[in-house]
Structure formats: structure tokens, C-alpha cells
Amino acid sequence: MDTAAYLRSHIRTVPDWPAPGVQFRDITPLLQDPKVFRVLIDTFVHRYMDRDKRPDVVAGLDARGFIIGSVVAYELGVGFVPIRKKGKLPFTTVAETYELEYGSATVELHTDAVKPGDRVLLIDDLIATGGTMMAGKKLLEKLGATVTEGAAIVALPELGGVQRLEAAGLPLFTLVSFEGH
């Protein structure tokens, strides 16, 4: 079994959550089994160990991006910065607001999280509409960093986020793709 199929077989689908008709892709089983978790992390680490893909910093999106991103950063021997929901960071921040299906949300980043010229890997668990990852990209760029790639475990291409991010010039790396939300 290839890596994508192996990881896909450990992602739980929860029907009708959080709303009727939604097929929720739950990654927690990937984290619970130590062998599966290692395969997941190693897949990302091996990709970003190559000199041309190696970041200076890994940025993780609140909250599941923290889990994956911090471990990947540790394994690569680079720093990790959290991109948090508004009001969670104690120091001076920059903020980016983005639209949700019903309303909006804001994410923040410490102003000293990255330096101009830093090459940043932006990581999250899932790409749906792409709003959170796009906001994270904009935050990092406001501080002068270059987001070299967006990475996620799961892509839900029919929700448009993958296309939106690629159209904005962000290369993407995802491990598993699911049609149908």
C-alpha cells in the first residue's frame, strides 16, 4: 500500500457533522496510532529535508497545524511559529481577517515571528475553502517572509481552496484528497 492510501485508510469520515450533508474528515486517528503518526510526520519531513525545499521556519495554523507543524519543525531542526486565532497571542501582532461561509474570522502572528527573507513552510491539517491558509500566507508576507509552500494532510478540492491558493501563487503539497464534503 502506498503512503497516501495508508494514511487515507486511517482518516475517519464522520457523516453529517457539523451539519447535515457534510462528510467530516477526522485526522485524529492519524495521531493516535504511533506508527501511523510517524509515517505522517516522516512523509512531510522527507519532503522538506531536500535543500531546495527546506524552510527556515515552519508556521502552523491554529490549531491542528500546530500539532503537525511543530513536530515537522523539530525534526527539520528549524523554528516553529504559531498563527493563532485573534486574541490568543500576548505580544505585538499583525492580523488578517478572512471570510467564512457565514461571517468572518481573524488570525494573528507575532510581529517578531519571522524575519524579512525567511523561507516559510505553512502547514495545516486540511484545505477546504483555503481562507485560513490564504490569511496565514498574507500575514507572513506582511512581515517580509516568503511562503515557499502550503502543506496539509487533506485536500477537499471541490470546495475551491486548492484552486484559490494555487491561483494566488502558493505551491501546495497535500497527502490525501477527498472528493465530496
From TrEMBL:
CDD domains: PRTases_typeI (cd06223)
Cellular compartments annotated: Cytoplasm
Gene3D superfamilies, per the entry: 3.40.50.2020
Pathway assignment: Purine metabolism; AMP biosynthesis via salvage pathway; AMP from adenine: step 1/1
This protein's GO CC annotations: cytoplasm
Transferase keyword on record: yes
PANTHER family registered for this protein in UniProt: ADENINE PHOSPHORIBOSYLTRANSFERASE (PTHR32315:SF3)
GO BP annotations listed: adenine salvage; AMP salvage; purine ribonucleoside salvage
Species per Swiss-Prot/TrEMBL record: Tepidimonas taiwanensis
Residue span(s) of domain Phosphoribosyltransferase: 30-154
Alphabetically ordered keywords of this record: Cytoplasm, Glycosyltransferase, Purine salvage, Transferase
Main location per the UniProt record: cytoplasm
Subunit structure, interactors included: Homodimer.
Gene Ontology molecular function, alphabetical: adenine binding; adenine phosphoribosyltransferase activity; AMP binding
Catalytic activity: AMP + diphosphate = 5-phospho-alpha-D-ribose 1-diphosphate + adenine
Family that this chain belongs to: Belongs to the purine/pyrimidine phosphoribosyltransferase family.
Listed EC numbers: 2.4.2.7
Protein's UniProt name: Adenine phosphoribosyltransferase
Function noted in UniProt: Catalyzes a salvage reaction resulting in the formation of AMP, that is energically less costly than de novo synthesis.
